[in-house]
Design goal:
binds zinc ion, 14 strands, about 210 residues, six-stranded mixed sheet, Metallo-beta-lactamase, Chain A, alpha/beta, single chain
Length: about 210
């Protein structure tokens, strides 16, 4: 599998495109909003000769879903996310207005996914962990074989996700990090929702928000 990062919208959100030797691709957290960002993503698929097959989201905050409807329409593909994050859509338009973004409707989740489900594409698969705390239905996608995890806004290099938005809870977030993500193993590469990649071992040692005694 190849993991590629495109950085989109006013929140510098990481959109990940993952594909394998079959050229089937999944898009994780499509944040493309402006025309030039949508064009950049389409051109990326064309240049690499990729076939987008699924949109899968770590969570449904506005900066992670801005490109969902565009991709659903353009490629006729489905949007997979946690049912437990649907509450966010109740105030998505209010959030958009607050940030000055012209958004007229929330996307619709086509398939609900949670821990225990497997995302398949090409010859590859990603497993799912429930990692709530930043939102109620936050999930992470990982490859056991290739030792990487897409963590959304749960953990960042030297930081952790905010817990002051609706559905956020610091104790639950820390539990998700300690008892889910850290158990994957120190050698797992972490691809977060914002900022640069890191790995589990580095964050265990150096993340200032994660001093577990
Ligand atoms: Zn978020």
């Amino acid at each position: 599998m190849q993991v590629n990062t495109l950085i989109f919208n006013d929140f510098s959100e990481n959109t990940y495109v993952i594909f394998d030797e079959t050229n089937e691709a999944v898009i994780i957290d499509p944040g493309c909003f402006y025309e030039k960002e949508k064009n950049a993503l389409v051109q990326y698929f064309e240049r690499k000769n990729l076939k987008p097959v699924k949109i899968i989201n770590t969570h449904c905050h506005i900066d992670h879903v801005l490109g969902v409807d565009f991709l659903k329409e353009k490629y006729g593909i489905e949007f997979y996310a946690s049912k437990k994050d649907e509450y966010i859509f109740d105030f998505l338009l209010v959030s958009a207005k607050m940030y000055g973004l012209a958004v007229d409707k929330a996307p619709k989740i086509d398939k609900y996914i949670a821990e225990g489900d497997i995302i398949s594409f090409g010859n590859s698969e990603l497993k799912i962990l429930d990692v709530p705390g930043h939102t109620l239905g936050h999930i992470a996608f990982y490859s056991e074989k290739e030792k990487f995890v897409i963590t959304g806004d749960v953990i960042f290099k030297d930081s952790i996700g905010r817990t002051d938005l609706p559905g956020g809870d610091l104790d639950i977030l820390l539990d998700s990090i300690k008892n889910k993500l850290f158990l994957l193993g120190e050698d797992f590469t972490v691809f977060p929702g914002h900022g640069e990649p890191t790995n589990i071992g580095t964050e265990m040692m150096h993340n200032p928000f994660l001093r577990f005694d």
